[in-house]
Write a structure and sequence with these properties.
Elements: H1 2-22, H2 30-47, H3 66-71, H4 87-92, H5 112-122, H6 129-145
Bound molecules: heme C (HEC).
Length: 158
C-alpha cells in the first residue's frame, strides 16, 4: 500500500518538472534594464571589472555587460527573483573578514546602499529611487577616491 502510494506521488511530481524546463528565463523589464545601466553596471565598473572584465576573468566571470553578468562564470551568478539563492549576492554580503568576500578583503568594500541596490535589482524589482540615488553617489565617491588614472570624470586629468 505504502509503496504504491509513493510511486503514485512520484509520477505526479514528474509532470510539473518537465513543464518547468520549458519555461523561458524571465526577461528584464525596461525599468530593470535602465536600473542595470544606471546603477548596477557603474557599480561593477568601479568595484569588480578590474578582475572580472576584459583584462582578467577571475572565476571565469565577467561583469562588464548585462549579457556577461547574466551568463555567469564557473557558477551561475543569480536568477532574477531569487536573491536568496544567488551566489554573487552571497559573496558580496559576506563579512569583510571572510576569505570568499567580494570584492576581496584588500579592495574597497561595497557600501550598505550599494549592496541593497544590488539585492533589490536581483529581487527582480525596480530599485527604489532614493536607494538608486544613494548607491550611485557611493559609486561616484569610490571612483573619486580611486587612483587618478582610474578617473574618467575629471576635465583636468587630476
Ligand atoms: C582584486 C580582484 C577582484 C575584484 C576587484 C573582484 N573579484 Fe570577484 N573574484 C576574484 C577571484 C580571484 C575570483 C576566483 C576565486 C574565487 O572564486 O574566490 C573571484 C570570483 C568571484 C565570483 C565567483 C565566480 C564563479 O563563477 O565561481 C563572483 C560571483 C565574484 N567574484 C563577484 C565579484 C563582484 C560582484 C565583485 C565586485 C563587487 C568582485 N567579484 C570583485 C577577484 C576579484
Amino acid at each position: 500500500m505504502q509503496v504504491s502510494l509513493l510511486l503514485c506521488v512520484g509520477t505526479l511530481a514528474a509532470a510539473p518538472l518537465t513543464l518547468k524546463k520549458a519555461e523561458p528565463a524571465p526577461s528584464l523589464s525596461p525599468e530593470q534594464k535602465a536600473d542595470y545601466a544606471q546603477v548596477i553596471q557603474p557599480l561593477f565598473n568601479a568595484h569588480c571589472v578590474s578582475c572580472h572584465g576584459p583584462k582578467k576573468e577571475k572565476g571565469k566571470l565577467r561583469l562588464d555587460s548585462l549579457e556577461a553578468t547574466l551568463k555567469g562564470g564557473k557558477n551561475p551568478t543569480f536568477t532574477l527573483g531569487r536573491p536568496n539563492s544567488s551566489m554573487l549576492l552571497a559573496r558580496v554580503f559576506l563579512e569583510r573578514g571572510a576569505g570568499d568576500v567580494m570584492p576581496p578583503k584588500a579592495e574597497r568594500p561595497l557600501t550598505e546602499k550599494q549592496k541593497e541596490a544590488l539585492y533589490s535589482f536581483i529581487e527582480g524589482q525596480p530599485i527604489p529611487a532614493d536607494l538608486a540615488k544613494a548607491a550611485k553617489a557611493d559609486t561616484q565617491a569610490a571612483l573619486a577616491a580611486a587612483k587618478p588614472s582610474a578617473r574618467t570624470d575629471s576635465p583636468t586629468g587630476k
